[in-house]
């Protein structure tokens, strides 16, 4: 298990270097889209993460897998960056580096990330309503929505923006009601 502080210490300079490359070549949004795709791919596949983390697998094998995954469509700068991570034995930090890159990109674009947890999948109209509410609260230029489903909520949503949490779930309302009843 990787230490979070150590992971952040490794991820930060690489993410900043990637952002610098992207900015100098006017590719910040393209890299952002690729970073989202790769992050989803890694978090969705434990086997891929294990393969990249395994120190006994030869770097050439890791490079070949990355080249196959990326295909010809990915930007050569990004491909070379990933291959450099393999050479520097930092490829196991790929997911935190990409997440940090996305955080830096959001900061650059004055975009906030809203993590929305709901009991059921939200409709497009509901997502748009959440976006508008978050924009009004944060005064950001743009909102990026990341949705999760938690059936324990019973109904409603929990919205997390940075350290601020808005609990509009049925479970949260029941808990608050229970606290009021027990405090009397």
From TrEMBL:
PROSITE patterns: ATPASE_DELTA. The keyword Cell cycle does not apply. Keywords: ATP synthesis, CF(1), Hydrogen ion transport, Ion transport, Membrane, Thylakoid, Transport. InterPro entries: ATP_synth_OSCP/delta_N_sf (IPR026015), ATPase_OSCP/d_CS (IPR020781), ATPase_OSCP/dsu (IPR000711). It is found in: Cellular thylakoid membrane; Membrane. It is a peripheral membrane protein. This protein is part of the stalk that links CF(0) to CF(1). It either transmits conformational changes from CF(0) to CF(1) or is implicated in proton conduction. NCBIfam families: ATP_synt_delta, PRK05758.2-2. Belongs to the ATPase delta chain family. This is ATP synthase subunit delta. The gene is atpH.
